[in-house]
Amino acid sequence: MRFKNEIARAGGVLIVTPEHDRSIPAVLKNAIDWGARPWGKNSWTGKPAFITGTSPGAFGSALAQQHLRSVMTGLGMILLGGEAYATFKPDLINEHGNVGDESTKKFLQDFVDRFALLVTRLAPAAQASAA
Ligand SMILES: Cc1cc2nc3c(=O)[nH]c(=O)nc-3n(C[C@H](O)[C@H](O)[C@H](O)COP(=O)(O)O)c2cc1C
User: Fold this and answer.
1) What confidence tens digit (pLDDT) does each residue in 69-115 have?
2) Ligand 1 centroid vs 40 CA: distance in angstroms?
3) Ligand 1: which residue has its CA nearest to atom 2?
4) For residues 8 and 43, what is the distance between their CA atoms, to the nearest angstrom?
5) How far apart are CA 115 and CA 92, in angstroms?
6) In a domain, 62, yes or no
7) CATH number of 114's domain
8) Which atom of ligand 1 is nearest to the CA of 88?
9) Distances 31 to 44, 59, 63, 129 between C-alpha atoms, Å
10) Total domains, the chain
11) pTM of the complete model
């Protein structure tokens, strides 16, 4: 219940995922399923969302994100357009816990800025679906 309340209060949902066996990590899928139940009380509907992620494979979590996109669209979420994948390399995150590479940082920042705008624009709709 606490989880569903937190989704209801959120203006938007940002998911950063790894990739497991070319798909959504089971624990993440489980959380999404809990948020969608019980029938008729889907907490995700109308929520703006942005998906990104990283994994060591060459596709950088692209297949996990593709599956996630399909599930989230099916649940009625409003996804930010575009694709934000990054192959995980040891220097991707620096010793301060930040994205170290400047071009990757800018690439991700552009998505975050666009997502913030989407959340602002959809604020009344996201609140209405929480009521
Ligand atoms: C069961 C399992 C399956 C994975 N499958 C993939 C995969 O299909 N593609 C990929 O790029 N990485 C894969 N990985 C690597 C993860 O994306 C992740 O980078 C790695 O597990 C490190 O994160 P962790 O410390 O949170 O486990 C897999 C990891 C696990 C544990």
Assistant:
1) 999 999 999 999 999 999 999 889 999 999 998 999 999 999 999 99
2) 33
3) 20
4) 6
5) 22
6) yes
7) 3.40.50.360
8) 19
9) 11, 24, 19, 19
10) 1
11) 0.89
